Fold this protein.
Amino acid sequence: MNIIRVKNYEEMSLRAAELLLKRLKDPETDVIGLATGGTPKGMYRELIRLSRENNVSFKNVHTVNLDEYVGLAHDDPNSYHTYMARYLFDHIDIPKENTHLPDGTAKDLERECARYEEMIKELREINVQLLGIGENGHIGFNEPGTPFHSRTQVIALAPSTREANARYFNSMDDVPTHAITMGIDTIMDSLEIVLLASGTNKAEALRALVDGDDVTEEVPATVLKNHPNLTVIADDDALSKVTSL
Ligand code: GLP
């Protein structure tokens, strides 16, 4: 595990964007895995700026997102479809057909999970997958207890995750109860993983990942200890409970 310790959110965002830009300059990189949430917003802003300044095109890149809420229309302000358009896709030259997210409005959700998994397989492999981390250690929407050997699946959101994400919705009742997420094995198949974390609310999850001895389904992110090419970019607050650095 390669850990890049930074001072704050701004520095995390810049370092992550620089790393991604470097990968995008490599013609071998044609599939990047993207994340949502509060954490990567600054990184997307920096990536848009840096890709313009460096004339880096996304024309030949495919993106695959980790997850999407079940039941939100694509144009719902809280859908991850809307998020990705707003924070990245509308500002870069990526062809829309190259951007992939699970369809949380599908009638047959199991079939949609299989389709998404098959689509990733057809792209061959994810060169670099970005990840945030939930306060309870979830990655994507793989909540504590999710079997490590899982592929794209429908998941019931943990009450703590619904509470953490309620800030974006009008009321708790509006927060979806389920999501489609890449499974743990889907994420682990990526050639490289870059996990971003900022803030003291992530400190316990980071402690389990960096300092903890256990690789346990109770803290999904601990599975990343087994990944051969993981970079963690985290700020002082997120690393405040890590003592081994
Ligand atoms: C969300 C997303 C995850 C994200 C995590 C942390 O619910 N499904 O992909 O990494 O929870 O979110 P945030 O960055 O807002 O703290």
